[in-house]
Structure formats: C-alpha cells, structure tokens
Design goal:
Layout: E1 6-8, H1 12-16, E2 26-29, H2 41-57, E3 62-68, H3 78-93, E4 96-102, E5 104-106, H4 114-123, E6 128-131, E7 135-136, E8 138-140, H5 141-154, E9 162-163, E10 170-171, H6 172-183, E11 189-192, H7 203-208, H8 220-242
Parallel strand pairs: 1-2, 2-3, 3-4, 4-9, 5-8, 6-11
Antiparallel strand pairs: 7-10
Helix pairs in contact: 2-3, 4-6, 4-8, 6-8
Length: 243
Amino acid sequence: MDHKNIIIGSGMISKSLADADFGRPTLVLASGVSDSQETRTEAFGREAALVDNAIANYPDMHVLYCSTCSVDSGIETPYTKHKLAMEARVLSKSASCHVFRLPQVVGLVHNRTLVSYFVESILQDRVLKIQTRSMRNLLDVRDFARVATLIVRSSMGVGIPQNIAASTQVSVLDIHMEIANVLGRTANVERVDAGYSQSINTKFLHNLLPDTDPLFDPDHWRRVLQWYVPLIAADIAMNKVQD
C-alpha cells in the first residue's frame, strides 16, 4: 500500500513510522534536536530551517511533529524553550498537524540515551551518581508508532499538542536497578538526594485507548527494559568486536 508519507529523519522515531498508514498523506518531522542538554543556537536554527523548508515543500500535507513532554515540566531550559517555539512554528505554518510530546523513548539506537548509557555503565562496572528524586517515563518506540498512527487516523487532537506516554512514572534508581537485574550484574550506584519528578498527563490517551492498553500497565516500564536491555547489550558487544 502506498501511504504517500514523507519522513524527514533517519533515527529511531523515523524508522518506527516507516510503514505507518495514517489514512492520509503525512509529513513526519522527526529530525532535529533530541539532546535535552543542547544549548547551541546553531543547532536550534538548523531544526527551525528544516521544519520551515519541509512544510514549504509539502504545504498541503498533514504534519506530524515530535516534541518532548519536558516542555511541561515547569523547568525552563534552552532545549524546552526551543521545542515550545518549534511546536508553535509547526502549528502556525502547517495546514493541519499533530504535535506529539514524548517522554524517554526506548528502542535500539546507536546514540546515547538514558537506558543505553545505564546498560553500558553497568557492563563496565562503573559507579554512577543517581539522583534519588529523579523520575522518568519510559515509552517503547513500538507503542509510540502504534498509538501515533491510531491518533492521526482518528483525527483526534488535531492542532493541540498531545502527550504520548505511559501512565506510570518510574524512579531513575529503579530503572538502573532493573537494568542491572536483567543483565545479571551488580548495580553500583552513589545515591544523591536531588532530582525532580514530572507528572505527565495521559488523560487524552485514556479517552482514546482501552483500559487494558499496555501503556496503562504499571509494569509497562519493566517489560520495556526486559525486552530492550538484552538487545542493547548485544549491540554494544558487537560494536566493540567491530572496533
């Protein structure tokens, strides 16, 4: 089936939507600043130019833009300010669009994410400083693709930023401990009394999905780690062999 989608990007999110059938030709904007620690204005400018050019080239297409749940965290950073500005840009320039705010998306990637960093650190027996009050929301990239496709096809939430996230927030310490457990290793941590907990509103998803959806399972985060941690560990080992 020819879905006539245009996908800008080559990362985990883009790949997860490669075969998506949105029910309409859709321009997927999934290439841009993904590092929450980014501060360089040139990096932000590149994403802005990419979005402007893509929408100008496909002015009649429905747009799907990936943002971050951290814009609603109450903590303002150059990254969150940029993502809010990008959301406004997409909303004003596109004929119609879905803006999806995402938490910590988990999948097999070659760039550093929270989960891949923890896997690598545990395999190398490094001691990590972990903020005991820090919480994260883990989202399987496959669940993102599934739910994003369903939302676009339903036409719900058009023109209003929506969260796609699990209903359970998990402490970073618990994430680290579970990864160590999956790897059969010792979790070497130095606990730091710091960090913040962000509450992500998933009411929109509860109105769209059945109560039995995997995203509403309190153990969803654990199942995500049990699936991906062995894959990430194997990928790390393979890359070391190739090096």
